[in-house]
Amino acid sequence: MKRYGRITGWGKSVPQRILTNHDLEQMVDTTDEWIVTRTGIRERRIAGAGETTSSMAVESCRQAMERAGVGPEEIDLIIVATSSPDYFCPPVSSMVEDQLGTIKAGAFTLVAGCTGFVYALVTASQFIETGLYDKVLVVGVEKLSPAVDWTDRNTCVLFGDGGAAVLMEASDQPTGLLSCELGSNGRDWDALIAPGYGTAKPFSEEVLRNRDHFLRMDGRRVFKFATRKMTDSVINVVQASGLSWDDIDLVIPHQANARIIELAVRRLGIEEDKVMVNVDRYGNTSAASIPLALCDALEQGRLQSGSHVVLVGFGAGLTWAAAVLHWQPERGIEGPILVENWPLLSNLFQPVTRVRNAVWSTQVNARARLQDLAMAAMTPINQWQRRTRDQ
Ligand code: COA
Question: 4-173 — its CATH code?
């Protein structure tokens, strides 16, 4: 019998301390107005003493297990997606496993920048579909604040700390992951980098002097990549899922910048109420951003049993990842039957869906090309305006 990965529990954990844009105005040469208009961010959470990557992961997992009514002794595997572990060695996933008190669980840490959670979710689904495991915890968590240069206004306004987790369990009813796309464009590996954080440039006085242990980013390169990849990968996964765009109830994009999301929304021609945005409250929490947004969407009642949701992320690497999920957390409840269960209906409807998706994809590409042209034309004008204003 075919097996599916059903998400049955979820939970989140964010630090107590809130750092607002007005607080940042006291720290670097910036303004609330600049940050809000360029990024949509109003505040972010910053971890205090005792709030670590592992502690946020553990709290999120506990909530997810409680919601699902599953004990730690039942967990088979824990996957922690993060770029900011407590230590480089040991893997933070083992610290999480220890603190949760699991008995038989394997655990590993997955590093794929801000796309880590979607990579981890797809990985968990494979373990379940193959029959190897029944219960897998998937965590996206970051304590980025120690890797942020709080004197660099280009980056310090963007990032925040937090974590969230889901529990995926084996199910024989069709649900969970319907399609996915995992991508990497390693040519742009240096677009978002902490040069002195690893073994290529081991920690030294020089690293400290050059502030190479902090995150650096080529914002415009990431922006261009993100808008292109978000639209392309959403189209690809919706097409691969066999659903049409109208069947999608919610899109949960990586919460890096509201402008990136807005641009992608316009290109895709999506209604705004189909898109989850909470970047204003947490900033960019990297691997935690998509599961945090998922938890907030659930708190706000934006996902019902039977909903179809698209997750889409991009980030360091540069990487991207997208997935279509059928959302049905209750065990043993018959949801809307997917087309794949009805070969006759499937054969009838699939060509219609394919044609509709092809029309949609052509429209999105045309809009994207027009917007790229408009942006290319506006960039020199904006730069000239800035230069004359500064003189
Ligand atoms: N406050 C005030 N001014 C700032 C500033 C801040 N916090 N940060 C940068 N600026 C200045 C720049 O120094 C520049 O000044 P200059 O023209 O005198 O050189 C000016 O604002 C414009 O900078 P620019 O980089 O062109 O701004 P932008 O419109 O591209 O916005 C980002 C910058 C970072 C918001 C945008 O590029 C972005 O969001 N990129 C994607 C980042 C991202 O998503 N990263 C995470 C990936 S997971």
Answer: 3.40.47.10
Cβ 153 under 6 angstroms from ligand 1: yes
> Does the C-beta of 114 come closer than 6 Å to ligand 1?
yes
* DSSP-derived pairing of the beta strands 43-45 and 216-217: unpaired
Determine whether the shortest distance from the Cβ of 217 to ligand 1 is under 6 A: yes
Please tell me the residue having the least CA distance from ligand 1 atom 10.
154
**Which residues are the active-site residues?**
114, 254, 284
Residues 105, 134: contact at Cβ < 8 Å? no
Tell which atom from ligand 1 comes closest to the C-alpha of 38.
Answer: 35
Q: Which string of DSSP letters, residue by residue, matches 203-219?
A: S-HHHHHTTTTS-EE-H
* Span from the CA of 386 to the centroid of ligand 1 (angstroms): 13
Residue 34 CB–ligand 1 contact under 6 Å: yes
- DSSP label at residue 256: S
* Closest by Cα among 360, 242, 233, 230 to 308: 242
The answer to whether the pTM exceeds 0.85 is yes
What CATH number does domain 180-279+293-390 carry, 3.40.50.2300, 3.30.70.20, 3.40.47.10, 3.50.50.60?
3.40.47.10
Q: What residue type is assigned to position 374 of the chain? A: A
172-176, 299-303, 345-349, 381-385, range with the lowest pLDDT: 345-349
287: nearest Cα among 91, 85, 83, 126: 83
Length of the chain: 391
